[in-house]
Specification:
The protein is of the alpha/beta class. It has 15 helices and eleven strands. The radius of gyration is 21 Å and the shape is globular.
């Protein structure tokens, strides 16, 4: 592989150029099925690029089946598309319960049960101790690493709060900002967001959706200062906000000195040439509160999610709401920390994405 082809800067990011070059060599047969690829560090040194660039390229190739990783062995060329370029892209538009059902079918209970037994043995009496208010450090650190590895999100574990799902966090967000604020919601949107906010005694304003997200004119005229959005596969419309609309949301928050609540549920099932960039990342984590759960990616019974707070809100949250106990049992958190930290969660997601591709 010629270094000049990769390191020459153009309009595309370097990781995408590297991704396309490796894919081209795999499809053409220049790199054969089963052939081992250089490690990320060696490849980065050879090409004169950062390890992060190589990691991002490898991640895309793994997602599409061109490459697979073997623990402690490295990266190898897969058999997904030898001699045939894959150009398919999946954006799930089915109701989220359908996606959850697919997740449930693909879930490996044997692996999960091994982790549960391991946690009981390793943690022993620590399982009887009440978890910290923000959640167990082990899980928060595992999530921080996973988000950087899988989503390209640079998040300190100190900013991550564990809780029993999005509905719990909706209420906490209203408690943080107050009942006197007006909360902007996509129209139509997940009805429980409105129900929770109304129950907390605050007012909602419904903003009509266009083909790529909330209409610009709706954003301009709203009196809301806190905006709830589901940028990927919004329920029930299935609308996904494109890059321009996500930037528009960020600019809206800056102009209003407001905040965006990004409910990123289902985003793990996005399959395409590029990872779905979060509004949180586009904003640099300044005015975006990020939410996600495991109820769709694993199962509805997994009543566990996480919220990422911007640095500006962290201290205020501690002062106003830090007395609340964590709503997720310590055992469940340690199990999830092992599941994520061992790479099994990512493998689980990749299996589902491959099946979604096959079904499309």
């Amino acid at each position: 592989m010629k270094t000049r082809e990769i390191t020459k800067r153009g309009k595309k990011p370097l990781y995408e150029t590297l991704y396309e070059k490796i894919k081209k060599d795999v499809v053409s047969g220049k790199i054969r099925q089963g052939e081992k690829l250089p490690s990320k560090r060696v490849f980065a040194e050879r090409l004169g690029v950062s390890v992060i660039t190589v990691d991002a390229a490898y991640r895309l190739l793994i997602d599409e089946g061109y490459v697979y990783s073997k623990e402690r062995s490295g990266f190898f060329v897969g058999d997904a598309a030898q001699g045939k370029e894959r150009t398919d892209r999946i954006t799930p538009t089915a109701p989220t319960d359908t996606v959850a059902a697919k997740s449930d079918v693909d879930f490996r209970f044997s692996s999960f049960s091994k982790i549960m037994r391991k946690v009981i043995t390793d943690y022993d009496r620590a399982l009887l101790i009440k978890p910290p208010a923000f959640g167990c450090v082990e899980l928060r650190k595992a999530l921080s690493d996973y988000l950087y590895r899988y989503r390209g999100m640079d998040v300190g574990y100190e900013n991550i709060i564990i809780g029993s799902g999005s509905e719990y966090f909706y209420g906490m967000i209203v408690a943080l900002f107050g009942r006197d604020k007006i909360y902007g919601l996509e129209y139509p949107s997940y009805e429980k967001i409105n129900a929770v906010i109304r129950t907390e005694g605050a007012d909602c304003e419904f903003l009509k959706m266009g083909k790529d997200g909330i209409l610009t004119e709706e954003l301009e005229k709203t009196k809301a200062t806190v905006l709830f959005v589901t940028p990927f596969n919004s329920y029930p419309t299935g609308i996904t906000a494109d890059y321009r609309k996500r930037i528009e949301y960020v600019e809206w928050a800056k102009k209003r000195s407001g905040y965006i609540v990004e409910d990123d549920i289902d985003s793990e099932f996005a399959v395409g040439a590029k990872p779905v960039e979060t509004i949180y990342s586009l904003d640099g984590g300044k005015r975006v509160i990020y939410l996600n759960t495991f109820s769709k990616s694993i199962a509805p019974s997994m009543r566990m999610g996480y919220m990422i707070l911007p640095e500006k809100l962290l201290e205020e949250y501690k002062q106003r709401l830090g007395f609340y106990s964590c709503t997720v049992p310590a055992f469940d958190q340690y199990v999830m920390a092992e599941f994520i930290g061992g790479g099994l969660f990512e493998r689980h997601l990749n299996r589902i994405r491959r099946k979604l591709k096959e079904q499309n």
